[in-house]
Amino acid sequence: MSMDRNARVGAGTTTPVIEIEDLSFSYGGVPVLERVDLSVSEGEFLGLVGPNAGGKSTLLRLILGLLQPQRGRIRVLGRAPRQARRRIGYVPQYPAFPRSFPITVDQVVLMGRIGAGPGLGPWRGVDRKAALAALRDVEAADLAGRQIDTLSGGQLQRVLLARALVGEPRLLILDEPTANIDQRLEGEIFDLLAELNARLTIVVVSHDVGFISSYVSRVACLNRTLVCHATDDIDGRVIGELYGEDVRMIHHAHQ
Amino acid sequence: MTETSTALLPLSELWLAFSGQAFLQQALLAGLLASIGCGLIGPFVVVKRIAFLAGGIAHSVLGGMGAAVYFGFDPLLGALAAAILAALLIGWIRLTWRTGEDTTIGAVWAIGMAVGILFISRTPGYATDLMSFLFGNILLVPTRELGIMAALDAILLLTLGLFYRQFVVVVFDEELARLRGVPVGFFYLLLLVLVAVTVVLMIQVVGLILVIALLTLPAAVAGHWTQSLAGMMLTATLLGAALTSGGLALSYGPDLPAGPTIILLAGALYLISAVAAGAIARYRAHRMLTAALDANPDG
């Protein structure tokens, strides 16, 4: 089996952006992650795939410092996740806020700046400029004044991406960024991520291994244990092993 | 209001009564001070959907007040202490266990009332004041209480002004707040304490049974028509001022209790606003769909 586990470790002289050693985690005794090793170096675009309940979201929450590892070690940007997380931009799978909340897009994006700089009083000019710049980065500057309940799924996804970028992160983590939008927009979002990859390290979770393999530089397959593949090696056999059954790959294109 | 029923006084007569009688001016001032509290905190209660929690805090106040009266303390002090204690208890249970707060709120609600009624039954002569406490009496707010209400308003304004961003992000998206290093637990508990303080402030005006209406209805109406939490606060404050003043004016002629009149006025406004906002939203959706279909006739 041609896997290049940790292939990039030692490839550069800088510390890895994410370094995970022998990580295990369980919910109430049921193991979710077992002996996971992973090293993500600067500038990588890593796809994290695997079946539902395979531990993808748990691994993300551990990297973000929202959960504590029960065994093993995680370093993000050379520090403990809790110390590093202001340098992480995170795009959740589902927005954690009610869509009916009375707030405009620019205010949502500004929230990604909280915790940086002095904390009291209203937003400052430098924050507002950063928010507009982030909206321009995701090609959504025209949405700035819109109420969030008037956005489509794809527009909301761009706004969440801008909110993750506005804090000037070094690492961008996205959990199923295209689960709630249609396929044409999926391509647009990933084209955008490919551009951002020029200045950011990106980890993206997806259930759609076929789709993301054309964008990412490496695929990490997680189903309690983690195995990495170079994207060229992804074929039916690898997918079958990951999902534990034969998955038929069907070529279907809509005209 | 040129046409008035026999029960209602013409405006001019009302103004005469108002300018001549200090207690009416006091009442109007009490209404305005309470409006600031309900305008600043009400939007948080509405968008965070914690009206039930605020209700629990309000009813627990009876326990503190009863105990204060029985032991010879200032009832307002007892009310504040009970409200803050209830807020911290409910908030702590929510933050620690993440579920089960409904049961806690229900328990705090009922136990607070029970404690209060027991103490009041043991305090001679106080039972008559129970009604004004349950239903409020805007006409009998003493000058000293007005000063305390003004001070509480100033505290609310200052705290929310300084930490506006933090409060908004904590009620909007707790996960983001946590990831950005905002102390979510601290601000959540602080918000609940501010809710508790506001509840005590408004009990003076409409009583504890009606306090939830004054806390939520102006903010909910404001939410139909505004696009930001700050805008919602300003609108809710103005609506609260209009509703308390209007309720006071309506109730004065026929000698109705002011608290329930204010609440019914607020309820009527809420119903009208909800129906109107719903109709406008449906009309807009219809128009946008029509426009989209016209623009793309083949699709």
Structure report:
The complex is a heterodimer of chains A (255) and B (299). By secondary structure, chain A is an alpha/beta fold. Chain A has one domain (18-243): Rossmann fold. Chain A is built from eight helices and nine strands. In chain A, the strands form two sheets. Chain A has a six-stranded mixed beta sheet, with helices on both faces. In chain A, helix 4 crosses helix 5. Residues 1-12 and 246-255 of chain A have low confidence and may be disordered. Chain B is mainly α. Chain B has one domain (22-294): ABC transporter involved in vitamin B12 uptake, BtuC (Orthogonal Bundle). Helix content of chain B is 82%, strand content 0%. In chain B, helix 1 (11-20) packs across helix 2 (22-47), helix 2 (22-47) packs antiparallel against helix 10 (184-206) and helix 4 (75-97) runs antiparallel to helix 10 (184-206). Residues 1-6 of chain B have low confidence and may be disordered. Chains A and B meet through loops of A and helix 8, helix 9 and helix 12 of B.
Question: Secondary structure elements and their pairing?
Answer:
The complex is a heterodimer of chains A (255) and B (299).
Chain A (H helix, E strand, L loop, with lengths): L17 E10 L2 E11 L4 E5 L6 H8 L7 E6 L4 H4 L3 E4 L13 H6 L14 H13 L15 H13 L5 E5 L7 H14 L4 E6 L2 H4 L5 E6 L1 E6 L5 H8 L12
Helix pairs in contact in A: 4-5
Chain B lengths: L10 H10 L1 H26 L3 H20 L4 H23 L3 H21 L5 H9 L7 H20 L1 H9 L1 H6 L4 H23 L4 H15 L3 H24 L5 H38 L4
List keywords for this structure.
heterodimer; A: 255 residues; alpha/beta; Rossmann fold; six-stranded mixed beta sheet; 9 strands; 27% helix; globular; disordered C terminus; B: 299 residues; mainly alpha; ABC transporter involved in vitamin B12 uptake, BtuC; disordered N terminus
